[in-house]
Design goal:
Distance between the termini: 54 Å
Strand content: 25-35%
Strand order of the largest sheet: 1-4
Radius of gyration: 16 Å
Number of strands: 4
Shape: elongated
Order of helices and strands: EEEHEH
Low-confidence stretches: 61-65
Number of helices: 2
Helix content: 10-25%
Largest sheet: 2 strands, antiparallel
Mean pLDDT: 84
Number of domains: 1
Length: 74
């Protein structure tokens, strides 16, 4: 089974997707699942930019993330 990715940014645009009719550009809103056919280099760019996350890992990452320490006011 291929890895599924969920959009965690508010909105991503111009995502190239291979279809039976050729390459199409799609826009996806937060919560959407990245369709099959997106080139791996684009997936890596979206991962590096924190715009997508592996399905299941986005919630795990939020649950285990620790808030940054607050600076004390003086």
């Amino acid at each position: 089974m291929a890895t599924e990715y969920e959009v965690v940014g508010e909105y991503i645009v111009h995502i190239p997707v291979s279809t039976s009719n050729g390459t199409m550009l799609v826009d996806l809103a937060k919560g959407a699942i990245l369709p099959e056919g997106v080139p791996q280099e684009r997936i890596q760019h979206l991962l590096d930019s924190n715009l997508i996350a592996e399905v299941g890992k986005s919630q795990d990452a939020k649950a285990t993330a620790k808030p940054a320490p607050r600076k004390s006011e003086q």
